[in-house]
């Protein structure tokens, strides 16, 4: 985002991108997230792990206010993106989501052509000056989504006609095309075969050079492979958060240890 | 034996069969239902079904077939020479039936005894007066041949009824006995009952289909009859509609078709945007509370009888339009002379179709997966961008289907046209002029003392047929589009 080399240098290795303070989330009367504090770093892959129903998706969706679309969902506390509270009244959630992109568990390409799927975000945000510009953005996004070679000859075929793994990479490319600063991924590989999974993992590793990536996963191996930081959730609490290496080799909390070794979950 | 008794006996046999079958099954299993192949109810139902269904089916077929058969036989015995001048076999037969019926009534009401009836001689003993006493009025005195035929008719009916009663009772008892004897712990009563249920479902489905076929066939035959009396080319290409029952009418369908299409077009121009926007609001924007309250309210509109809409057109919308476009009206123009006009009917019909369009579209929009919307929101699109660029394109085929269904309703609508659009068949572009539609003319051609053999009355069937073909095409097209749309998500 920053073209200025001076600014570039000032960005410390562990600059905080998102910081959450005392976040509570309620669905109606039931509390899904209890008092979570976390600092998510820029240019880092952060993995959220934890047993099913512990609130990983819920917390992830708080980070770009996707929970706003659920009527009964209520969020308390403070979540700062670059120091600015995204739940402040002045913040436009639509603008926010352009900065904090999201990839969903199930691939959800629009029933449009592959090209239009990718061009969707750039078009609504006016990122392209002209057609040639847009073509370039689309190609770049598809290349970064590691799917360009497979679709370059059929850009105008419907995106729904791709295989599941291709669709997921298309969705990642679509999210990348709007040039977000943070990319949230909710179990992006749960529908993919091992080959597509490793392609997506490679992609995540590349994305880290520019973005903060947050990934929810049920695979310990995946978390260990792709992430630098890991957060373990349990029953709506953030139990433990730290360097991935430390969490997996030397967890401090007994609950984390039993989850990682497969005793709870 | 009266019919009612017969049916009651069969039903009582069925009920007894239920109890007996159940008991026999239980006792064959030593009182423990776990040793039975099926639940005890199935054994009971099985016997009850065998006792009632074949008997009642034969009864129904017999009731339909017997009068037809007797009619044919008796009619065949009347010599052509005995049919009076200016009458037909059909008229004579209806006299025969009336006399037979009257004699039956007279005997059952005690006006005469069976012996007196046997002593009656045509022409002298005042049969006509006797029958008038029991409420059967005859146009003329009973001729010998009519009386003879009526007697024969009665004899055959009496024999037929006796045979019928015996047969039905035999079947009921036989079915009972057969099923009862087969009842034991290993008998698969559950499967038999399953079979019976399947058959009854098939029966219902075929009744619905056969009725439709029957309706279409009657339309087709009458239409063919009409085209034998009136040239098809003049019907399809004629531009004037002026029926006169004295003959020499021009029955060109074009002005009516034009009126139909014009009014439907205005109706859709009103209903489609409003209905669609309402659906989008309800499914995408409204909070659950508003939705729970507004959707049923909107659907109440669909429950209003169309005649009420017709009154609304006649008493409110028409005068309102006149006060705007009529002489001395709001706009100072004089484009409209009466309250009846294409616009009046079109606007009101449009209001009638709003809930139709909105509730169908609402269902279709709701069927678009939430994941599509999430994907769009996740990219930073606003609600309206999401609706316009993702939800609508995904729902479009279904919505087109909904619109076509609404169109076929508009084409078939009658009451609003009768009250709102006037009765003049006209080929005109002016939306403020009175016109009429195919449906309204079908009504006016068939009401009153129309002779059903004249082209002026038969034209109603040709009109109905044209309408039927039009709406059928629209519906098929709509179904085709909706089906194609379904394939995308299922
Ligand atoms: N839309 C909703 N309405 C009501 N309750 C919800 C909703 N979504 C989630 N919840 C509840 O919030 C809790 C956390 O759910 P969440 O989806 O965040 O779990 P998760 O950690 O992502 O689980 P998984 O690993 O199975 O995806 C669960 O108890 C769930 O029942
Ligand atoms: Mg989840």
From TrEMBL, chain A:
Domain ABC transporter, first and last residues per copy: 18-260
Gene3D superfamilies, per database record: P-loop containing nucleotide triphosphate hydrolases
Keywords: ATP-binding, Cell membrane, Membrane, Nucleotide-binding, Phosphate transport, Translocase, Transport
Localization per Swiss-Prot or TrEMBL: Cell inner membrane
One annotated Gene Ontology cellular component of this protein: plasma membrane
Domain of life: Bacteria
CDD domains: ABC_PstB_phosphate_transporter (cd03260)
GO process terms (BP): phosphate ion transmembrane transport
Keyword ATP-binding: yes
Membrane topology of this protein: Peripheral membrane protein
GO MF, one annotated term: ATP hydrolysis activity
PANTHER family: ABC TRANSPORTER I FAMILY MEMBER 17
Stored NCBIfam families: 3a0107s01c2 (TIGR00972)
Function: Part of the ABC transporter complex PstSACB involved in phosphate import. Responsible for energy coupling to the transport system.
The protein's name in its UniProt record: Phosphate ABC transporter ATP-binding protein
Species annotation: Donghicola mangrovi
From TrEMBL, chain B:
CDD domains listed in its UniProt record: TM_PBP2
One cellular component term from this protein's GO annotations in UniProt: plasma membrane
Single GO MF descriptor: phosphate transmembrane transporter activity
Compartments where found: Cell inner membrane; Cell membrane
Its membrane topology: Multi-pass membrane protein
Transmembrane segments: 41-65, 162-181, 201-221, 260-282, 302-325, 345-369, 390-411, 457-482
UniProtKB keywords: Cell inner membrane, Cell membrane, Membrane, Phosphate transport, Transmembrane, Transmembrane helix, Transport
GO biological process, one term: phosphate ion transport
Domain ABC transmembrane type-1 as annotated: residue spans: 257-478
Sequence similarity: Belongs to the binding-protein-dependent transport system permease family. CysTW subfamily.
Alphabetical list of PANTHER family matching this protein: PHOSPHATE TRANSPORT SYSTEM PERMEASE, PHOSPHATE TRANSPORT SYSTEM PERMEASE PROTEIN
Function: Part of the binding-protein-dependent transport system for phosphate; probably responsible for the translocation of the substrate across the membrane.
The protein's name in its UniProt record: Phosphate transport system permease protein
Organism of derivation: Donghicola mangrovi
Taxonomic classification: Bacteria, Pseudomonadati, Pseudomonadota, Alphaproteobacteria, Rhodobacterales
